[in-house]
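Q: For a teaching session next week I want to show students how multiple molecules come together into a single three-dimensional assembly. I've collected the sequence lines for a complex. Could you give me the predicted structure tokens for the whole thing so I can convert them for display?
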Amino acid sequence: MANANPFSDPLRFERRVPACAIVIFGASGDLAKRKLLPALYRLALDRFLPENFAIIGTSRTAMTDEEFRAKMRESVEKYSEDTSLDASLWSRFESNLHYVTGDLNDENLYTALGAKIAEIKHSSVLFYLSTQPSYYGPVVDAIGHAGLNKAPEGSGGWRRIIIEKPFGHDLESARALNKRVQSVFQEDETYRIDHYLGKETVQNILAFRFGNGIFEPLWNRRYVNHVQITAAESIGVEGRGAYYQEAGALRDMIQNHLLQVMATIAMEPPALFEAGAVRDERAKLLRSIRIMKPEDVPRFSVCGQYKGFRQEEGVNPETQTDTYAAATFYVDNWRWAGVPFYIRTGKKLPRRVTDIAIQYNTAPLALFGAGSGEPTARPNYLILRIQPEEGISMRFLSKEPGSGMRLRPVSMDFNYGTSFGNRSPSAYETLLADAMLGDATLYTRQDMVEASWKVIQPILDDWGARKFSFPNYEPGSWGPAEADAMLARTGRKWRNS
Amino acid sequence: MATVANTNVITPEGILRDLNQWWKDLAQSEAEANPTPTDDPHPKTGGLLKACAMTFVVAAQSEVDARAAHETVGLLMHDHPSRAILLHPTQDPDLKATIFSECWQPFGKRQQICADGIEIAAGAKGFEEVSRFIVPLRVPDLPVVLWCRGSAPPETNAFHDLFGLADKIIFDSATTTDADEALRGLRRLHAYGYRVADLHWTRLTGWREAVAHVFDDGLKAADIRSARVTYGGDQMTTCARYFEAWVRTSLPTARVAIEPEIADHPGLYSLTLGTRSGDIVISLCKDNMLEITGEIGGVNRQYRTALPANAEDAMMREELGILGADPIYERVLNA
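A: Of course. Below is the structure for the complete assembly, covering every listed component.
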């Protein structure tokens, strides 16, 4: 978006969010309490928000403004990880917190919201759908019917909407929801959030690839043997069993977060670093992922469920839900033809880690094989760690000190936390500020959502038609044995360290 | 944590040798103090990490000034780990060197991060050799920043040689009695191709941010017909000059004036932006706050915003964060 402010100085200070209001649907829910309010408070603390920035919360729970403020204060105190509550700032911040009680299916709620927006005199409004996904369509329709999707004429204001994942349940429902949203909001007013894209380390992938001259020449099929993307959690469903059994690992993680990460890793460099150009390249990459043929799905995907999932609260004792999913994807373009991208995610794995490992081809000749202490030449790894211990490592071989030519793998590490003393904003801080500033670079677009559902759909269809003998992995293990077999077929193995 | 050791060897090679030994000793004592438990199956990385992002040369004006500078350097290390070379004059004609390190441990980590530094004290004769000393002490391949604590560098030719080594030279024109002469000096250096910065410009960031936010809030540059900058005190400061030039170059079609104001303290006092629908006034009020009043984006507004405290380390942190071109400062300096 062009910056028309002649006084801006991006080297010294950030643009401030313009005067606006945010309406949070589902304001008494977990996401609002744990993520949204702490992020908004932190933005206020960092002086990103104007003094009269307003938050209107709405949900079915009956509350007064005061009760809502007290509840939100509690959330900010409890869930702000590295921010303590400043009493004087909070008193100014909470004076702009408002609450409207209502049922999402009741049109009176939208009339009341319209009246509240008029009362606080904001022409620019950001709607945030933090409700059950089944409400997305009805709420968008109701916003349209109440005329809240248009700023008053001549006011210079805007209306935008942020929609949480999952955006649809499959390709068909995603298309239907897109159609419904687009009948009320324009595409440039629609912000589909994928909080992984707001993570500093995911954004750093772009800086790493396109800000340095030495890596990009090695970023292709000539040098890269394969790529592994892992998002492992050590915990189980932790009381979210009822929700999780409807989603599963493939829908919950791979369709959105991990395919977006893969797109960031594999996309072509954009001509400009601006929303349209970056999103065009991501979308192009997602469209280049080979769609699996039905007969290939069992070979290129693995479905798992940990022992004990069926005994979790709210979970059907015979559920076929995947708590582990792994897949092999190929990108059919010149850069990546023939290079497998292995993606896996699961619950109750040995530890919480999200990383991307790029394995390079080994040296063409095992020069130091015999007597070196190493059986053959080892491949080099470039590892991009997203969480925890965000950073980048390069693994290579080095000569051990002493006589002889004994080689040992060593690591060259860059650690975000120790290299930059300043605090990294949370993904929600980044994404909320971007939406208010009208910058959609880190949001997903309709074509990206549909392209990623297209990639996943054959797997969903296959898994939906099969009956697996679950459970098939022990908590604390790295998933089902079939996942190892999937890589072993091509002579590769997962990095389980 | 800062630790120091005297070095008796006053050649650059000797200083570097002492530094190397110093690092080895530091690593050994760290390893002895925090041995890695052998029964821990997943030991966290411990040990010592040497961090360095630049060579940071600080030219203090006196021994007292050097102590203050040393403190600021310590505060800057977390964000800008560097090899600090602290120079200051003494009565003693000979060069003397002391090596030191700044170490810290990130919260929750076992690994200690350290940066090293060298303090060089020199009399007038010794200063002539300063640039010869600093060339080999620089960290290869990393930028060199020179911070001249004061409005102008010490008047020695040798010192001027240091300019040629620096990727950025930071001054502070706050104490100058002749703003126009100070700016002419900075312009001259800039014209010679040196990348200069002035902390008296950095002090304006809070003001400038407040003005920019008024435009983020919906005020349009095309609506501004005039701008009036006022300052307190008896004499014009570089700060007021910078601010006026910044407003003038940002609003090329508006009439911009700068005038003195009767105010409690010297420095920038207010900015009045004239529009068809009235004035928007940004003025300094008590407790280091700015008050903003006027119609902004079609709404009558009155609010206050706090100015940053402008501590020396905070301003230096801002300047060290900009090692490349600073087009807005350069535009204003040359306006």
